[in-house]
Amino acid sequence: MPTLQDVAKHAQVSTSTVSRVLSGKGKFTTEVQTRVQNAIKLLDYQPNSNAQALASNRVSLVGFITPSISAPFYGQIASGGEIAARAHKYRTLIANSFRNTDEELEAIRSFQAQGCKNIILHSMSFTDEQLIELANKIDGLVILGRFVEQIANRCVWLDNVKGGQMAAEYLIANGHEDIAILSYAQTQCDPSQRINGARIAFANAGLNLPQDSIIFNQGQIADGSWSVNKLLDSGKHFSAILAYNDLIAVGACKELIKRGYKVPEDVSVIGFDNLFFAEICTPELTTVNYPIKEMASYAVELSIKLTEQPDAYVERTHLFMPSIVERSSVKRLSK
Amino acid sequence: MPTLQDVAKHAQVSTSTVSRVLSGKGKFTTEVQTRVQNAIKLLDYQPNSNAQALASNRVSLVGFITPSISAPFYGQIASGGEIAARAHKYRTLIANSFRNTDEELEAIRSFQAQGCKNIILHSMSFTDEQLIELANKIDGLVILGRFVEQIANRCVWLDNVKGGQMAAEYLIANGHEDIAILSYAQTQCDPSQRINGARIAFANAGLNLPQDSIIFNQGQIADGSWSVNKLLDSGKHFSAILAYNDLIAVGACKELIKRGYKVPEDVSVIGFDNLFFAEICTPELTTVNYPIKEMASYAVELSIKLTEQPDAYVERTHLFMPSIVERSSVKRLSK
DNA sequence: CGCCCTTACGCAAGCGCTTGCGTTAACTCA
DNA sequence: TGAGTTAACGCAAGCGCTTGCGTAAGGGCG
After folding, report:
1. Architecture in CATH of A61-158+292-320
2. How far apart are CA A10 and CA A124, in angstroms?
3. How confident is the model at residue B166 (pLDDT cuts 50, 70, 90)?
4. What is the per-residue pLDDT for A27?
5. What is the count of residue pairs from A and B with beta carbons less than 8 Å apart?
6. Given B72, B92, B113, which is nearest A47 (Cβ)?
7. Which end of chain A is more exposed for a tag (fewer CB within 10 A), N or C?
8. B61-158+293-321 and B160-290 agree in CATH topology
9. pLDDT bracket for residue A335 (50, 70, 90)
10. What pLDDT was estimated at residue A308?
11. Which positions on strand D lie below 7 Å from a protein C-beta?
């Protein structure tokens, strides 16, 4: 591979001049500029990023840490993020963490070892304190899908309370009063926030939400099935299910149908996330849209801004709003 | 961040010694070794990958180029690949190419600029000649999902002919004789290979495959619907559909059902790829398994072997086999 | 016309690491 | 015991780039 030296020799200038032409900083005559550019084209020169990084202590890399890139939700993060990154001439690093703190830490370390300061973290396992500490250490760290007050300007998140509320309100508006919630058993905040949102909707409607209407599970398709069975076997009556995510919702639908119930005629189901398969399944899933792709791309922009223009104005809060996507898994109950 | 120098100072040795202890090459007393290791721990030292790369001209990065990382199929490549890469202490770069030659080239260039020699390419747009040229230039380039004779040992691929044949044979074995093929209109070889495989099965069964039984489309869900409409409107009779991929298959199922046909009672459908949503949709999709995750991880191993041990023995061919996954979208036809 | 300021470029140090070679001291063995 | 080995480490160059500083040439101005 040709080096800056080679280009300099060809253009009959010093390496510093080539470097300046390349970066557009500094002054030079248009004559020199064209000489350099010609040499670059002629030699098919491509700067060595490692040398650049070493010399300038700057790196054009954004790293994504998500539980598992092959899950549809996280795939969108990587995809939306990559597009935004590429638009800024940044390259994209990824790491699967499998919700494991050690893996997450290891990923961060290795990204840092690359000189990568732009890290988008969708963490399930760090505590708020850990995140704050990390954010203070890493200028370009952006937390996706979570809100931590002390580093609010570094968090790109969804209003989960609102989302839960919207979902519940939608069911209530469709005449449902006996609603079961299939939630996700984890310490992180999303599930409880969505439940809280639902509680608000219930309270507003003068309804109450008995504790045994909430089933916690592991958030996968099979867990949706499992939860429905548990619900059905408990003898509890319900006309609608509010699921923590689309996976649970789909599992619930399948199990419901398997056990002879019709969806939505007998039981309505609403999901969360609006993953692409929501319109594949039968019935097509009514769900709450989580604009994760946009959020990922926003997070990248934010991270780059944070590192490239540390003094630039940054919104204090980066909050995204969920929205209802009506399809066919919720039935209007006539009184 | 602490540097090698800092570690050396703390351990009272030269930087070369630290470097040697780190890499395990060269000789040193265990006493020196522990001194160095203690210093490393004490300072929480992490080598600067850019400096390492620059000095050694070696880099622990594997780059994946796929059309779009958020598509389920390609997500599996990144995920399986990342896991294999991490096992070798390699980091993972990704790039979306959107089936665009320029983007693919650009991605390769930028990976190379990082010093990354391990590239896994799932290319839709390069010609065989281009791939050969690239493979000759880049030691660690591995082609995924395609076979090019001249660089056979660099191709990790699926027996698509066999896959098409298996799918057709499965339908035939279930009594179907009027089979429509919903294929993918692209210059690349997969679709035609699968059709060829189907032809073999037809020929073996003494059946023939009229040209107007094959509909070409763009390979997405909507295209499955579109193709079914085209088929239905042409008045052609068929009892089964053999789809190029699961997306088309799902779209076909949906449209069939929409137009009043029952799947599989009226029309059977078989897909290809065995993506995770195949068991979500209704009916659950019978399909051909494409072990892409395993292939991706294999490709990474191969690439690393190619660059780290250029003289090691490498299988001449890396061929994976598809297999039928029986679910409920194909009905046995009684004579 | 001499002075100063700017413009346009070159010089060279240095980013943090690897590695070939050199050096020292300990060790082997006839 | 002295020549030759070898083990264990240090020296320093150099990977390809950036960038602060220096400087020569050109231009403006009184």
Report:
1. 3-Layer(aba) Sandwich (3.40)
2. 53
3. very high
4. 84
5. 130
6. B113
7. C
8. yes
9. low
10. 92
11. 7-12, 14-20
DSSP single-letter state for residue B260: T
Q: Whole-model pTM?
A: 0.94
User: How far off is chain B from A313, nearest CA to CA, in Å?
Assistant: 28
Q: Is the CB of A32 under 7 A from strand C?
A: yes
Which of the residues A61, A114, A138, A223 would you substitute to probe the B interface, choosing the one with the greatest number of B C-beta atoms within 10 Å?
A114
User: What number is the average pLDDT over the span B102-121?
Assistant: 96
User: Residue A219 is encoded by which pair of tokens?
Assistant: 């958030």
Contact B63, B35 (CB under 8 A): no
B332 touches chain A (CB under 8 A): no
CATH superfamily for domain B61-158+293-321:
Response regulator (3.40.50.2300)
Give every CB contact of residue B187 below 8 A, 6+ residues apart in sequence: none
A274-305: b or e for each residue (b if 16 or more CB lie within 10 Å)?
A: bbbbbbbbbbbbbbbbbbbbebbbbbbbbbbb
Instruction: Tell whether the model's pLDDT for residue B186 goes beyond 90.
Output: no
**pLDDT bracket for residue B316 (50, 70, 90):** confident
User: Packing angle between helix B292-308 and helix B72-87, nearest 10 degrees?
Assistant: 40
Residues of A30-66 as b/e, b for ≥16 C-beta within 10 angstroms?
eebbebbeebbeebebebbbbbbbbeeeebbbbbbbb
Partner A contacted by B53 (CB < 8 A): yes
For position B124, what pLDDT does the model report? Answer: 82
> Per the CB < 8 Å rule, is B83 touching A96?
yes
* Interval A166-192: pLDDT, tens: 999 999 999 999 999 999 998 778 899
Could you tell me the fold of the domain covering B160-290? Answer: Rossmann fold (3.40.50)
Percentage of chain A exceeding pLDDT 90:
89
Q: So what's the pLDDT on residue B335?
A: 63
Is residue A47 within 8 angstroms of chain B, CB to CB? yes
| Chain B residue with Cα closest to A94 | B92
Q: pLDDT (tens digit, 9 = 90+) per residue, A32-85?
A: 999 999 999 999 999 999 999 999 999 999 999 999 999 999 999 999 999 999
| pLDDT value at B52 more than 70 | yes
Determine whether the distance from the CB of A30 to the nearest atom of strand C is below 7 Å: no
Q: Least CB-CB distance to A82: which of B83, B91, B94?
A: B94
Protein B27 CA to nucleic acid D4 C1', in Å? 21
Nearest 10 degrees: CA dihedral of A310, A314, A319, A321? Answer: -120
Task: Say what the pLDDT of residue B314 is.
Answer: 86
By Cβ distance, the residue of B50, B76, B112 closest to A70 is B76
Residue B77's pLDDT is 97
CA B61 to chain centroid, in Å, comes to 18
Q: Which of B91, B109, B280 sits opposite A93 (nearest CB)?
A: B91
Give the percent of chain B with pLDDT over 90.
Answer: 90
Are A94 and B113 a contacting pair at CB < 8 A?
A: no
Q: Is B12 helix (H, G, I), strand (E, B) or coil?
A: coil
Whether B62 and B119 have beta carbons less than 8 Å apart is answered as yes
Asked if B36 and B13 touch (Cβ cutoff 8 Å), the reply is yes
Domain spans in chain B, listed from the N-terminal domain onward = 4-47, 61-158+293-321, 160-290
Q: Which residue does chain A place closest to B255, by CA atoms?
A: A280
Does any CB of chain A come closer than 8 Å to the CB of residue B115? yes
CATH topology of domain B4-47: 434 Repressor (Amino-terminal Domain) (1.10.260)
Residue range A209-227: average pLDDT? 94
